[in-house]
Specification:
The protein is of the alpha+beta class and 110 residues long. It has a single domain, classed as Winged helix-like DNA-binding domain superfamily/Winged helix DNA-binding domain (Arc Repressor Mutant, subunit A). 55% of the residues lie in helices and 15% in strands. The chain has four helices and three strands. It has a three-stranded antiparallel sheet. Strand 2 and strand 3 form a beta hairpin.
């Protein structure tokens, strides 16, 4: 039986999206694909999770959509990080780093 692929931990999708968009505006499919590629094909973001997250983040002012042209020449909604989104990314990266160290300490000491 092949090993099960890990699922995204609660609260990590926003961090991953913000991090990917820090490199520049992308459309939804490209965001999911970039996360998949950067994770060495371990993480898969399903459409049913991605778009609600994008809409939620847009409502919070972390990202803003703009219509543009995809690399394939099609009209697409591109999402870009806002100033508040950059601040949120820095906050979430700090929290994530603390969490990783804390979990690592627990795993080493049990």
């Amino acid at each position: 039986m092949p090993p099960k692929k890990p699922e995204l931990l609660s609260g990590t999708l926003d961090l991953l999206i913000l991090r990917v968009l820090n490199g520049g505006p992308l459309h939804g499919f490209a965001i999911a694909e970039r996360i998949h590629v950067l994770s060495r094909e371990v993480l898969t973001v399903e459409e049913g999770s991605l778009y609600p997250a994008l809409y939620r983040m847009e409502a919070k002012g972390w990202i803003e959509p703009e219509w543009g042209i995809s690399p394939r020449g099609r009209r697409a909604k591109l999402y870009a990080l806002t100033k508040d989104g950059r601040k949120q990314l820095a906050n979430e990266q700090q929290i994530w780093s603390q969490m990783v160290f804390a979990i690592g300490d627990v795993l080493k000491n049990t």
